Here is the input.
Amino acid sequence: MVNTVSCSHMFSGISQENYNRMMSCFNSAPKKYLAGETICFYEPKKRTVGIIEKGRAVVVKTFYSGSQTILEQLSDGSIFGEVFYFHANTDGISVIAASECTVRFIDYEHIMTSCHNACQHHSQLIQNLFSIISCKAAELSEHIDVLSHRTIREKLMAYFQIQSSKNNSTKFKLPFSLSALADYISVDRSAMMREIKKIKEEGYIDISQKEVTLLKEYIQ
Amino acid sequence: MVNTVSCSHMFSGISQENYNRMMSCFNSAPKKYLAGETICFYEPKKRTVGIIEKGRAVVVKTFYSGSQTILEQLSDGSIFGEVFYFHANTDGISVIAASECTVRFIDYEHIMTSCHNACQHHSQLIQNLFSIISCKAAELSEHIDVLSHRTIREKLMAYFQIQSSKNNSTKFKLPFSLSALADYISVDRSAMMREIKKIKEEGYIDISQKEVTLLKEYIQ
DNA sequence: ATAATTCTGTTGCATAAGCAACAAATTATA
DNA sequence: TATAATTTGTTGCTTATGCAACAGAATTAT
Here is the structure.
């Protein structure tokens, strides 16, 4: 399951000048990684916040079997770290560069504890962090809303309705493939396809490729 | 579904003396409510943090049909508010006193924006708030872990395993009724009962009333 | 351009799980 | 203590859904 984190930016409301000033205050130098390189492994008690200044990376879970799942996709301005991963178990979680990357690491405690050098925008940073975490929590909550429906049809319609209201339109584009959607709503893909076909035939939705249109009200 | 929030306390690490000082800084006077009284309604843009200083209360969702669900149970030291409820839709959400209650309200922005009166423990408060939100997010994440299994059996075993590891024991007590459990894992209660019976017969668990014991390893 | 991989669409089959309906046990309330 | 309300435990019936297995379309990699 891929979480596309659109949430607010860690440094929104903070100028480039102040950003640089903060980074020196946080004592954080940029590090470079080549595509494919491991940026870090998640560890139980570590509380380092990472920032992708430039490039793309992925947070992946590697299972004992060797198979991998992408937990999150990161790009310019994305943040990552144990603090944003709400599981006790960090086994097999790592961050891998998908392209050449410039990354900063900041000590979480340093962000939280108010700064002796009195960075003026510290409070702004904390507020941003808060809204990022709240946004992640909202995504989890949304996911639960979908998963807590009993049938495939109800899960699908719940998901579609959320997407629709997010786009302020009955027409929207799925943010990922149908296979990934089946994964997200935790059902068998073939069974989901069968159900989509039915919902389509019954005139509730129209769907071709990734373009979905809600046609009539669905009351669960 | 009831979320029992055990998370850390809003004012842990802050003395009674400093607590009082902060409250006067926050300009927050205690308010009293009788059992059954409505403490507040959740509103979309409101960002007020409530603290139950004494007593018990519940966060409830009232549906158009008139039926209600308890979203959260609050007791001494619990906090509540729109900030901790990660849905866009706040319709029909209210906080009701379950017993006589003393409640404080604090402006969220005042907590987040660093204090001009320079309360020394402001940073501690922010850290506590962070850990509360993270804890809530972890609970959501845990819920998803359970819900994303396909079968009732898998959901049950996932749930039991989480409880077991939380208690550091193969023996633990369910925090709510079996009906509520069916609700939590989002399956039909009778079907869940049938499955519990089977799992029991096959020797995976032992369960009587709310006491559960994991007997042998279950590999999904 | 070609090969390889992933995604989409479909079907038969077996069964897990939803629904309804009931009685007994337990817990809450008057 | 009596009564109400909720929870637990059970069953028959039906069907939705998981699983396996396949072929063609669409991407992505070489």
